[in-house]
Amino acid sequence: MTKARLLRLSVVLVSIFMILLIIVYWDNVGTAHFYLHTSFSRPRSPGAIPGITAGEDWEALPDVDEFLAKLLSASLRQNNSIPRKTEQLLVQGSNKPVVSNLEENVRGYDWSTHKDRNSLDQEKLQVERQRTLREFCANSSFTFPTKERSFDDIPNYELNHLIVDDRHGIIYCYVPKVACTNWKRVMIVLSESLLDQGVPYRNPLDIPREHVHNTSTHLTFNKFWRRYGKFSRHLMKIKLKKYTKFLFVRDPFVRLISAFRSKFELENEEFYRRFAIPMLKLYSNHTNLPTSVSEAFGAGLKVSFSDFIQYLLDPRTEKMTPFNEHWRQVYRLCHPCQIDYDFIGKLETLDEDAAYLLQLLKVDRLLRFPPSYRNRTASSWEDNWFAKIPLAWRQQLYKLYEADFVLFGYPKPENLLKD
C-alpha cells in the first residue's frame, strides 16, 4: 500500500516538474510575459470598451489549462511592465517615418493629416461590427464551410496567420491585401522580434519588406506544436482568453482586384510560374509559354482578370491546392466564428481604425501606424473590372465569398449580380 502511494506521489511530482519545466522554457522565449494593461485585456475592468463582451476570466477551462493559468498568473506579478529603457528607445523614432524602401517610394504614401473620428463613433463602429459578426456566426440558417467546427478542430497549419506579441498581449490575424505588410511591421516593432545592428527596430517603415514577410520573423500559433507539444492547444486557449485579438478586413471583391493587380499585372516570378502559366494554358489555350515572367510580359502574355475569375471558380483549383492566401476567404484565414475578436478594423477606414486601435492598446506612444498609400484600389472600380465578366460568373463568385461579405457587414453588390 505504501509503495502504491509513493508511486502515485512520484507520478504527480514528475508531472508537476515537467509542467514547471515547460513554463520556465516558455518564459525564456517570452511567452509568459502577459502584459494585461490593454483596454481590452481580460479580466474586464468596469470601464471596459462598450460592445466588447465581458466574460468570466477562466471559466470552463480544463484542469491542465487552469493549472497553467495559475502558474502564469504568478509569473505576471513579476513581469507586469515593459522595461522603461525599451519604451524610451522606441519613442525616439521620428513622427514621420523615413521611407527607405524603393517599393514604398514608388507607391507614394499619403502624408496628409487625416481628421480623427470621435472616439465615441469608433466605439459605436466596433459595437456594430462585432454584433454583426456574432449574430451571423450564431445564425443556424446562415451556413458556410467550416462554420460549425470548434477551435480544436482547426488544423495547426490553418493557424499560421495568427501572429502573437507576448510583450503586449496581442494577437493579430493578418489578411493579405488588407494593409498586412504594415501591420506585420507594427507587430515586429512591438514584439522586438527583429534587430537592426543589435537594436530593435523603432520605426515600422525601416523594416525591409523581405524581412516583414519572412515566416521566421513572427511567432504564430502554428509554431506552438514544435515548442510546446501536447500543451500547445492549452496555451493557445489561455492566450485567446487573455490577449487582445484583432484583424483588418476589406470588401471581398475589391480585395480580389487588388490581389490580381499586384500578383499578375506586375512582374512576379513566383506567381507567374505557380499560377499564371497554368491559367494561361487552361483558360487562354496558350502553349509553349516562356519560363520567365519578363519574357512573357515582353511577348504580351499576361493573365486576364477573366482568366483569374475562371481559376477561382474552377472546382479543380481547390482539389489541386487550397486557395493562395492572397485570395483565400477571410473566414478561412482567421476563423472568426471560432475566435472571439476584440477589434475588427476595415481597410476602408484604415487611418481612423489604426489610430484608435493603437490608442486602445496603449502603444500609441511607442509608434505610429504607417500612412496609407494613395493608389489604393478603390471600391468604385468594381463596375469597370467586372464589366466583361459574365453575370453567371459574378453570381458564383459572390457565393464563393458570401461569408466574408455577410460576416463583416459588407453590402451585397446588387449592381454586379443583376442584369
TrEMBL record:
It is found in: Golgi apparatus membrane. It comes from the Eukaryota. The chain crosses the membrane at residues 7-26. Pfam families: Sulfotransfer_2. It is an enzyme of class 2 (transferase). GO terms for cellular component: Golgi membrane. Its EC number is 2.8.2.-. The keyword Ubl conjugation does not apply. One of its GO terms (molecular function) is sulfotransferase activity. It is a single-pass type II membrane protein. The keyword Hydrolase does not apply. Keywords: Carbohydrate metabolism, Glycoprotein, Golgi apparatus, Membrane, Signal-anchor, Transferase, Transmembrane, Transmembrane helix. One of its GO terms (biological process) is carbohydrate biosynthetic process. Its main location: Golgi. Belongs to the sulfotransferase 2 family. This is Carbohydrate sulfotransferase. The lineage of its organism: Eukaryota, Metazoa, Chordata, Craniata, Vertebrata.
